[in-house]
Design brief:
Rossmann fold; alpha/beta; about 35% helix
Length: about 300
Amino acid sequence: MAEVAVTSLIDTLYTDTPCVDVLRLDRQHALAPGNKWFKLKTNLSEARRLDAHCLVSFGGAHSNHLHALAAVAREAAFPCYLFVRADAGQQTPCLLDAERWGATIIPLSRSDYRRRHDPEFVASLVHELPKPYVIPEGAANVLGVQGCADIAALLPDRAAAYDLVMLACGTGSTLAGLACAVADGVAVRGVPVVKKAEQFMPTDIQRLLTKIGHFRNNWSLDYRFIGKGFGQLTPGLIEFIKTFEQRSGIPLDPVYTAKLFYAVETLKLSGELNAYSRILAVHTGGLQGRRGYPEVFGCS
C-alpha cells in the first residue's frame, strides 16, 4: 500500500490564531485508511516473522479495525478469523465486506466478548486454528504503537511546526505512538470517546509507553467530549457533523473524528487553545463506520 505525499494530506481548517491544520489520514490506503494501516503493518510483519498461518482479532460488528484487518489480510494472502461481538447471523456492511474479502466471522456473546483479554479464554478460541497470530482489539499493542510512531514521521521534523497535536482515542495506542515520536516541545492531547476512559486509558497508555522506553511527559487526555459514550450520538453532535462537513468539506465518522473536531471547535471558540499558535488535528479515518448510521448519513 503506497504512502500519499504529505502535502496532499494537510488541510487548513482555521487560519486565524491558533491556526488549525488537519492531517487527513483518511486519504491514505483505500481499504485500510486512517491510523489502521499504521497499527496493522507492524503486526503483519511480526506475523510473517513468526511464520504464522492465519491472523486473528476481536472487535464489534461495525469495527474499523476488523474492516481494515480483513482488507490487509486479503492483500497479504493471510487467512483471517474475526471474533465479533455480535448476535449469530447479524450482518452489517462492515462484516459483509470482511466476508467478501475471505475473512471468517465468529460471533461472540457480550459476556464472552468481555473475556477477550483473558489469555486462557483466547487460547481456547484459537487452539484449533493453524499457527494463529493474535492481534488485540484495535491492534492496541506495542507493535501497534510503534507503527503509529510513523504517523509523526510523515510530517516535516516530526511535527515540530506545531505546538499541539490532537486526536480521538479509543484505546490510546495511536496517541502513544505519536507521543513517543513527535519532536520535543510538541504536546499531544487525546480526546477519549469511550465511557469511563479515565479508569483505564491513562494506565494503558503509560504501560505501552514504558514498554517502548518513552518517558517524556508530553501527552494528556481531555474527557469532556465523551458524551453519551462509544458510538452514541446526541442531536447536538449530529447537527455539528452536518454543519462542519458543509463548511469544511471534511467528512467525519460518528464514533471518533466527530467528537475530536467538536472538541477542537469548542475549545478554540472558548479561547482554551489560545496558548497555542499552530495545532494539528489528526483525522484517523473510520469513514466506513458511517454506514452504521444511515439515519444520519443516508448510506447503507
